Amino acid sequence: MTFEREERIAFARIISDLIEADFIVEEEEMESFDRIRNEKDFSITMSMLSEAKTMTFAEAVGTLQALRDEAKKARIREKLHHMSLSDGTCVPLEALQIMAVNYALDGKAQVFSIPEGSSFIENMKVIYIENEDHTPTDAYIRQHYRAISNEFRLAGFNFVYIPQIADDYKLIRGDYLHKVIKYMIPTLDEAKVEKIQRDLCSMTTSRFTHELLFKKMGINMLNSKPAFLFKIGESAVADKSGVDDMERNMHSNFLLVPIDQMLGDTLHGAPASILDQVVDLMDSYRSMVSAKLVIENQPLSKKFLYYGFHRSLFDLIAYGKERANYKLVINLQNRAKPVVLRPVDAQNGQPDEGGGDLVIDLTPQPYTLYILMVYMSLLEENLDWTDYVEKDETHKLILKKYNAIYRRVSKGNHSGEYRDKSHVSRIKKALKAHGSIVSNIDLFVPDKVQVGKTVSYRVPLPPDLVYVVEGPKGKEREVRMVDSNFWKSHFWEDNH
Fold first, then answer.
1. For residue 36, which phi and psi values (nearest 5 degrees)?
2. What's the whole-model pTM score?
3. 128 in the same domain as 78
């Protein structure tokens, strides 16, 4: 049995997260990793490990989830188990990550990762998620809240049921809560203070899923069935376009376990209730943990609690910026801001009244490279990045196009090369800086594509989200790039 290259890379990513789960890299773990990567069926090279560092935990799990060979799945489970005990202790986050992989391999769960800057949720939290209110599942959770909460708590988890959090805020005297909100954010006017107060006291699970998870954190559960959402740690992901793997971005990792999937199982020959399944799930988790479990008790209180999930919810409502869909607008006549992100619902050619344009903060050369990437992705082929002789003519032609844009974005400047990793890295960082506001930011970020020796970059934007500004001063208008006469012409032949 031999694993494919991409499978070995994915496995290396998961092992890497497992090693770093307790924030200590033990000598025994390094020795165990060396043994695994040198085994014939894995043969994980340092080059593969480097590629693994550019994957998110979710991407790695997704690759292994696609396996059809049960023997390979069993081998992965075996090695993860051995790896977790290599230092003599399996800590909670290690066990949780292994559980996530096992559930995903069995098709019982989904794992996903989001940029950490978008996450307000702490580790070892499990949240009940649904898209509708007053469902039979919700009624069951409410009726058995204490029992379910205790089962999670005994395993070291803090169970979050949004209506219960809202009930806690309702117990706080209104004038006292109002004063606290005003104290926390003194610049708020009365209307916004009252809105935050109402939101805290009336938050439902479906509103939390739609308005906070999706719009403010970028976690898309809008089509999800009722489920338990586990926070399972963070990962450092190397920037693919960085000069080296020292440029890293932190991601938060989550495990989503659909409740209807749980109910499809049986316990002792009979259909299992949600509570039965929670017990079974937590028993399985505890059987893997060899470290001491920390049980958190949260006392009942009519006071304003600013810790744990109460703090997370308050910060999301009060400070979290609502995300929206944006489009890309290119204006070669505006050298200060040749590229901006603009809300999709903005008036033609105009930012919204609130100054909704988001500037992509770059210098002329990275601006030029990004515009070229967008142009090549939409109107031609991906931007060629291959560095070998056979592509010399291709390289020269692309460079002409680059300089034609560069002359307009700068003050007539010229460059002898368009390929610069540092510029790609700056582009990605400048775009991702708006990730907490732009819900569709991933569409704007360049992807590196490699097929054999051929390397290219593409921007996965659809044509309807890329506009250019055309027309004389005072009569400018937005036109889709794919409909623009200028961008469809041989503009690089124009030397003026």
1. -65, -50
2. 0.69
3. no
